[in-house]
Amino acid sequence: MNWKTMMTATLLVVSLTACGTTNTKDAGTQEPASKYPEKPITVVAPSGAGGGWDKTARSLTKVLGATKLVDKTMTVENKPGGGGAVFLAAYATEDKNNPYKLFVSSPPILINNLKKEGNSPFGYKDTTPLAQLTKDYGAIAVSADSKYNDLKSLIDDIKADPTKLTFAGGSAPGSMDHLISILPAFKSGIDPKSVKYLSYDGGGEAIAALLGNNADAIGTDVSSLGSYLKAGKIKILAVTSTERLGGDFKDVPTLKELGIDAEFTIWRGVFGPKEMTKDELSYWDGKLKALSENEEWKKELQSNDWQSEYKNSADFASFLASQESVVKELLTALGMQK
Hints:
Elements: H1 2-28, E1 41-45, H2 52-66, E2 74-78, H3 85-94, E3 101-105, H4 108-114, E4 127-143, H5 151-160, E5 166-169, H6 176-187, E6 196-199, H7 203-211, E7 217-221, H8 226-230, E8 234-239, E9 265-273, H9 278-293, H10 295-303, E10 307-311, H11 313-333
Parallel strand pairs: 1-2, 1-3, 5-6, 5-7
Antiparallel strand pairs: 3-9, 4-7, 4-8, 4-9, 4-10
């Protein structure tokens, strides 16, 4: 009996030890909980200072930090060149798995990839769309001392002699500011290729050109013009929204009001590298949704004349696919598609 008892006890101990060993091994093979982010994060504005991308990147990092939604240091870098195309080429190849570098963009990420001349081989599919945050509209503006007080007189002079007027914009030919600049002329029966367009590396430089009398008009996003309008430095002749905007822009007519059947919405969003992990994507899905609902962010939108338009990562990617078709149609109409 003693022998049998000892054998039973020994087998029981071996069995329990084996079970314990198996559980320990299984637990050890589980993926460790993600600690992302563990170091500072950079948000790139692919333009010079002063334009819509720059302002969006700075507002984004400011509010995420101030509200403690992100507890790591966030800094903004300006990477101008080619309306964002120069930055994206480097990002898509050198930072495709770097989750500590994000960037902001808008329709140029589609336009640069679809246009014929100076096009980029890279587009939104070489990134991970994280969220759309805002929507904005285009505007045609002139300096305060310009002889033009309405869009019709400007269009009439372009019709008479397109070579005598120059539009400035903060992005490359064929990109967003260029499309906004030529849109009213094109819809008024003018060959868009005849409209002179001078590109600068960012909205700030384009505005400086306008105020320095190096350009006759500017086509750009309306939100970047608010401070200049308040200061009495410019006149905005028209906006590309479907309805009149409020606040400081309440007296500015839409293109449709002026008999020009056109509109142009400027969305802005945040992008990450193509090879983000599920945990990294989930982190930003949560943080950017929380940002969109935060009161400090809503105040930031108001101060910059932006309208909230939040889409999460999945919805934003679907939206970009549909927008790609819209942009391709517009570029085709202008003879600029690749």
